[in-house]
Amino acid sequence: MREDGTTAGGARDDDPLLRVENLRTTFATETGTVRAVDGVSFDVERGETVGLVGESGAGKSVTARSLVGLVEDPGRVVGGSVRLDGAELTDNTESEWRDVRGGRIAMVFQDPLSRLNPVYTVGNQIEEALRIHRGLRGAAAREKAVELLEDVGIPDAARRAEAYPHEFSGGMCQRAVIAIALACDPDLLVCDEPTTALDVTTQAQILDLLDDLRAERDLAVLFITHDMGVVAEVCDRVNVMYAGEIVERAGVVDLFERPKHPYTQGLLDAVPARTARGERLAAIEGEVPTPTEPATACRFAPRCPRAFDACHSVHPTGVAVSADADDHTAACLHYPADATRDEAVERHRERDTRTGAEGDTE
Ligand code: SF4
To answer: Which SMART domains match (predicted)?
Structure first.
């Protein structure tokens, strides 16, 4: 920490570990430019788990990949800012990205078996990560690899380090992938649907493990999922994504007890555990659109049960849902709830004109 209270990256003591502002990632396709991530902003603090939730196609995974410089061709981050401890990442060179990935930020993906190399033992693969990121070799690397396997709950870790991935169950493979992620002692763990391929019991164990690791290591975790049940289990704060935008943001209890955006309400109505026995499970009709133009209206309007005329001509931006709820925002023309409808619509119209496509370098 410098004398003026900033870190080497320029972050102040009270800055979040990760700050994403107005992030825009597009894909150039034959049929047009897909705006997969369209003005996304959120923070992640040390020691907390922040959720990014939404249906498939909402832009969650592209957001995660944009944070670590892994957007695949023809995708490109075209605007906005991603700061880790105050240091801007979006203008990183490939070698700077390599230092960040596996150094400060580690990722855990959905399919653990595909992340492990079948021809090397699990221990070898953790040792390789330790060699690259922490300079450990030989007995020191082996000892640390076994310790990491113990940390992620692999029994008889010294013997298991000699095993190949195909000798592990799905849950054990995911634990091994998490051990590799931890080998670089990251500040931020980005988990992209890490339990989707696992059975319910193993899923619960992995969620418990991630929560224990977060608490023990003061890790920041960005948790990407389509599963509201998982969100309730692990997240402190939640960002709901729809068609490339964040449409609602709140603390997890607030979101589940007082969801405001019609899309969030629809997602929660579709959770089996929240539906009374014998009652028909609700579903949101239609599909997430693929945005190819800047938003000039609410992208959820064609599916929204509460849509009214202005929803088709005014683009809602995230506003506090009421005057006393700064940390709960919704991008919906019905909010703030304590304004008249006309006032609320005008507020969104003005905010959208101000923020517009700021930072877009297309
Ligand atoms: S702005 Fe309109 S269409 Fe969009 S979520 Fe709100 S009510 Fe529905």
So the answer is: AAA
Query: From the alpha carbon of 301, which atom of ligand 1 is closest?
Result: 3
pLDDT at res. 26: 97
Q: How far is the CA of 332 from the centre of ligand 1 (A)?
A: 5
Query: The tokens of 89 are what?
Result: 């990442």
116-20-17-96 Cα dihedral, nearest 10 degrees: 60
- Ligand 1 centre to CA of 302 (Å) is 9
pLDDT exceeds 50 at position 359: no
Cα separation, 137 vs 124, whole angstroms? 11
Answer for the pair 84, 104: CB distance below 8 angstroms, yes or no.
Answer: yes
- Check pocket membership of 262 for ligand 1, CB cut-off 6 A: yes
pLDDT digits (tens, 9 = 90+) for 141-198: 999 999 999 999 999 999 999 999 999 998 999 999 999 999 988 999 999 988 887 8
Q: In sequence order, which residues have a C-beta less than 8 Å from that of residue 338 and are 6 or more positions away?
A: 322, 323
**Mean pLDDT confidence for 97-112:** 86
Residue appearing with tokens 């061709």: 73
Q: pLDDT tens-digit profile of 38-77?
A: 999 999 999 999 999 999 989 999 999 999 999 999 999 9
Q: Which atom number of ligand 1 is nearest to the Cα of residue 305?
A: 8
Cβ neighbours, 10 Å, residue 166 = 9
CA distances to 24, 42, 239 from 21, in Å: 9, 7, 14
Residue nearest to atom 3 of ligand 1 (CA): 301
How are strands ordered across the β-sheet holding 87-88? Answer: 32-44, 18-29, 75-84, 87-88
* Preceding amide of 74 cis, omega within 30: yes
Q: Beta strand pairing status for 237-242 and 49-53?
A: parallel
How crowded is residue 78: how many other Cβ atoms within 10 Å of its Cβ?
19
Which H helix or E strand runs over 192? strand 188-192
